[in-house]
Amino acid sequence: MRFEFKSRFTAEVIYTQEIPDGTEEILQCKLALELAVKNGADLSGAYLSGANLSDANLRGADLSDADLSGAYLRGADLSGANLRGADLSDADLSGADLSDANLSDANLSDAYLRGANLSDANLSDAYLRGANLSDANLSGADLSDADLSGAYLRGADLSGADLSGANLSDADLSGADLSDADLSGADLSDAYLRGANLAQFKQDFIAEVLKLPNELEALRSTIVAGKIDGSTYSGDCACLAGTLAKAYYKDDLEDDYDGSDIQINGICYVADASSPREQWFMQIKPGDTPETNQAAKIALEWLDEAIMMRDHIRKAA
User: Exposure pattern of 202-236 as b/e (b: 16+ CB <10 Å)?
Assistant: First the structure.
């Protein structure tokens, strides 16, 4: 018997797959799709909304621009699949293998991806608003400019992920692993970060600011006053390095600070825009205070720890 795959855009048949006669109706789509993928079929733009594809072997499938909204893909193997621009909204992808898959520009809003493997997947510009990614493996994934607002990422592995420019506002990142992640330009406003692994950002921040121990109170006042602008070195509001430079040089800074390293008693504070500390401060804009901005609140907590460490060192000296 024949199973026809139709276009989501024109409703015309785009591919026909032979399957054994007598195949149960509930299994026909899954079997036909597995065979079509095995035969290297181009199923871009296919209409598969609501299809039952649980545990299907779809490794390397070309399902770009396909409609898989509300589909059941629990435990499916989609590793290396091309899902660029696909509609996976409300789909059940729990426990699915999407490693190395191309999901750029895909719609995954409200999708259920708990425990899914998305390691090294391309999710750039993907729409993941409200998606459940709890305990998912997103290590090394490209999530640049992705919309993850309101997403559930509790306990997710985001180590080494590219989250530059991503929208993580209102996202639940509690217990998530963000080690070695790139957060430059990311929006973490109102995100829940309790228990998240932010060690690389914290350690880099404390290690560097302690090189300018006399400027820590000035930095603190600036954060509290909402006069940080993580995107620029100079001006009334400036990034971390710019704020420390203004406090260190005071009236001796004839021109605008240009991001050069700050030398003090043989110790060099390196102004590095790509560093974890400056990535963190890029989330803070003029007017953001610890009461209104999550990044500013956490930065203030780290700074208070640094001040305590400095004071302890001075007392012990």
Answer: bebbbebbbbbbebbebbbebbeebbbbbbebbee
The string of DSSP codes covering the chain is -EEEEEBTTT--EEEEEE--TT--HHHHHHHHHHHHHHTT-B-TTBB-TT-B-TT-B-TT-B-TT-B-TT-B-TT-B-TT-B-TT-B-TT-B-TT-B-TT-B-TT-B-TT-B-TT-B-TT-B-TT-B-TT-B-TT-B-TT-B-TT-B-TT-B-TT-B-TT-B-TT-B-TT-B-TT-B-TT-B-TT-B-TT-B-TT-B-HHHHHHHHHHHTTSGGGHHHHHHHHHTT-B-TT-SSSSSB-HHHHHHHHHHGGG--S---S--EEETTEEE---TTSHHHHHHTT--TT--TTT-HHHHHHHHHHHHHHHHHHHHHHH-
- Using only C-alpha atoms, the chain has a radius of gyration, in whole angstroms, of 25
Q: What would you measure as the largest C-alpha separation in the chain, in angstroms?
A: 86
Q: What average pLDDT does the segment 11-33 reach?
A: 97
Question: Once rounded to an integer, what is the mean pLDDT over residues 104-133?
Answer: 98
pLDDT value at residue 142: 98
Tens-place pLDDT, residues 277-296: 999 998 899 999 999 888 99
CB 75 within 8 A of CB 92: no
Q: Does pLDDT of 255 surpass 80?
A: no
Query: Helices 294-316 & 199-209, crossing angle to 10 degrees?
Result: 50
Please state the rounded mean pLDDT for residues 86-113.
98
pTM of the model: 0.89
Tell me the percentage of the chain whose pLDDT exceeds 70.
98
Q: 177-199: per-residue pLDDT in tens? A: 999 999 988 998 889 999 999 99
Residues 6+ apart with CB under 8 A from 191: 168, 169, 170, 171, 172, 173, 294
